[in-house]
Specification:
TIM Barrel; eight-stranded parallel barrel; 19 helices; binds S-adenosylmethionine; binds iron/sulfur cluster
């Protein structure tokens, strides 16, 4: 079905593309036929119109906020052999490591020490070493010993009962990438191990919902197969679980395949160029306006800065992709090569320079604004009411606790501007009062 959509959208008239982009400005999303039309845009003028529309929607739904987080790799041991990944079983060059309890706490403290409040916990799949017990006890250690307020988890598929344990341990978002929606390519890329079961992976989100996890994140690993096919199938996947459980994806990630030491590929099978990458992000923004788009440090600083305006709403910063990497960097333990090596404070300075306000907010999950409740707030546009003030408050805390002189100056000016943009006078006054409380030393204030 997806292939015929792509084919029939090939000869669409210029006028139709303009109509679709006009409709997208209503921020009510797009259907698959409309997405297929936009995926076929090649003409520069139309691409620019697509970018302009994505900028408009991003700004209307999210304002000028960017949420920050860092990944924490607890283990690079893996029994699978995904050809594209540095952690694959047959990579004999990799220095293998599963963090001890103490090392997990130390890594989380290093991340916290940069100023982060949000972690994405990741590991390879090894039923002995990285099972659900390993993950829930890592979460418990981090919540207990640090000020990290939200732990999202990206792991191999689990059973319903295991997802229940993640829920009990206080998971934020459960993230899982299908990698590719093409079964043949999937089979080739995942020749052995538990991950070779396509169906068990694609139904992971259903089991997570059944266990009561209602914030889920999806993604396709861009570069394994034709991106048009992947985007349409990913959106079809999202529609199917939204229909079943009443909630769409909380986030879509856009991982683009990177070279990795000891991978099993000679080259990237379907390279996605920067222009197509920009197109993909813009289309996701228009297709699902209320879903967060996550961009990692796989991308270069220049491109990351540009993509903020097109639709990206969350970025990782200061990341390491090897277990123990925040304390001691061992490049022979990396999952893949990172492109953006800037520290969190450098990334913050650039975000401010571009007029965006960094957010360290973790309030939604703690105020139970997740799943359907979150989507309702978001779709009514009410999310602005909380998110902008929370971004201001959490950034203020970050500046006071971690900022240097120049970032403080830049950040304070930005906070003044962002305050003025709060429409509701009562809320504006409340935020001003809370800013004074933060200056006096109070912390973790949010709406
Ligand atoms: N091991 C679990 C799994 O495979 O589901 C957890 C996630 S894995 C550590 C993180 C993700 O990194 C994978 O889902 C894959 O999409 C991505 N990845 C693997 N190798 C990569 C590479 N060479 N470049 C970019 N992303 C890669
Ligand atoms: Fe293991 Fe995940 Fe890497 Fe596959 S992508 S080799 S499952 S860590």
């Amino acid at each position: 079905m997806v292939l015929s959509l792509i084919e029939s959208a090939r000869n669409v008239e210029r006028r139709s593309v303009e109509d679709i982009l006009f409709k997208a400005r209503e921020c009510r999303g797009l259907n698959l036929e409309e997405v297929a039309c936009l995926l076929n845009i090649e003409d520069e003028e139309q691409l620019n119109l697509l970018y302009e529309t994505a900028k408009y929607v991003k700004n209307r739904v999210y304002g000028k906020r960017v949420v920050l987080f860092a990944p924490l790799y607890t283990s690079n041991e893996c029994t699978n052999n995904c050809l594209y990944c540095g952690f694959r079983r047959d990579n004999k060059e990799l220095h293998r490591k599963t963090l001890t309890k103490e090392e997990i706490i130390n890594e989380a403290k290093e991340i916290e020490g940069q100023g982060h409040k949000r972690i994405l916990l990741i590991c390879g799949e090894d039923p002995q070493k990285t099972n659900v017990k390993h993950i829930t006890s890592s979460m418990e250690l981090i919540y207990k010993n640090t000020n990290i307020k939200r732990i999202n988890v990206e792991t191999a598929p689990m059973k319903v009962e295991e997802y229940r344990q993640l829920k009990e341990a206080g998971i934020g978002t459960y993230v899982i990438f299908q990698e590719t929606y093409n079964r043949e390519v999937y089979k080739k890329m995942h020749p052995v191990g538990l991950k070779s079961d396509y169906d068990y992976r694609i139904t992971a989100i259903d089991r997570a919902f059944e266990a009561g996890i209602d914030d889920v994140g999806v993604g396709a690993l861009l570069g394994l197969y034709d991106y048009k096919y992947e985007v349409l199938n990913l959106l079809t996947h999202c529609m199917s679980f939204e229909k079943k459980y009443g909630v769409g994806p909380h986030t879509i990630s856009v991982p683009r395949l990177r070279p990795a030491l000891g991978w099993g590929l000679k080259e990237i099978p379907y390279p996605v160029c920067d222009s197509d990458f920009k197109k993909i992000i813009s289309i996701y923004r228009l297709a699902v306006p209320y879903t967060g788009i996550i961009l990692s440090t796989r991308e270069s600083p220049e491109l990351r800065d540009e993509l903020l305006s097109l639709g990206v709403s969350q970025i990782s910063a200061g990341s390491k992709t090897n277990p123990g990497g925040y304390k001691e960097n061992d490049q022979k333990a990396d999952q893949f090569e990172v492109s953006d090596h800037r520290s969190l404070s450098k990334v913050l300075a650039t975000i401010c320079d571009k007029g965006y306000i960094p957010s360290f907010c973790t309030a939604c999950y703690r105020r139970c604004r997740t799943g359907e409740a979150f989507m309702e707030y978001a779709k009514e546009g009410e999310i602005h009411e909380f998110c902008q003030p929370n971004a201001i408050l959490t950034f203020k805390e970050n500046l006071l606790d971690y900022g240097d002189q120049s970032l403080n100056k830049l950040g304070s000016e930005l906070i003044e501007k962002a305050l003025e943009e709060i429409q509701d006078d009562k809320m504006k006054e409340l935020v001003k009062e809370k800013l004074i409380e933060i200056e006096k030393g109070k912390r973790d204030i949010y709406f």
